[in-house]
Amino acid sequence: MADIPLPVVLQGSRCLGCKYRRLITSGSGSVFLLCQYGLVEESWPKYPSQPVAECRHFQEARIATKLGE
């Protein structure tokens, strides 16, 4: 599967480094950023306006360095 480039509006968004983010690609190739925190907290937006500069729920995504981490 080919990598889909990020839309300019998402580049530099604080969300990209967050553990709650999930990139959603539509059938037509549009890319959206889902905030999974919004799935458990109804008052929080599931699809925040981008780019996000600051977020009180930001938690840095953990990147596995070894298989199984």
Category by helix and strand content: mainly beta
Query: Which sequence of strands runs across the widest sheet?
Result: 1-2
Chain-averaged pLDDT: 86
Envelope shape: globular
Percentage of residues in helical conformation: under 10%
Instruction: State the total count of DSSP E strands.
Output: 2
User: What share of the residues does DSSP label as strand, in percent?
Assistant: 5-15%
First CA to last CA: what distance?
Answer: 24 Å
Low-confidence stretches: none
Question: Treating each run of at least 4 consecutive H or I residues as one helix, how many helices?
Answer: 1
Our Rg estimate from Cα atoms comes to 13 Å
Report the major sheet: 2 strands, antiparallel
**Order of SSEs:** EEH
What tags apply to this protein structure?
single chain; 69 residues; mainly beta; two-stranded antiparallel sheet; 6% helix; 14% strand; globular
Descriptive notes:
The protein is mostly beta strands and 69 residues long. The protein has a domain at 14-56. Helix content is 6%, strand content 14%. The chain has 1 helix and 2 strands; from the N terminus they run ββα. The protein has one helix spanning 37-40; strands at residues 21-25, 31-35. It has a two-stranded antiparallel ribbon with strand order 1-2. The protein is globular and about 30 Å long.
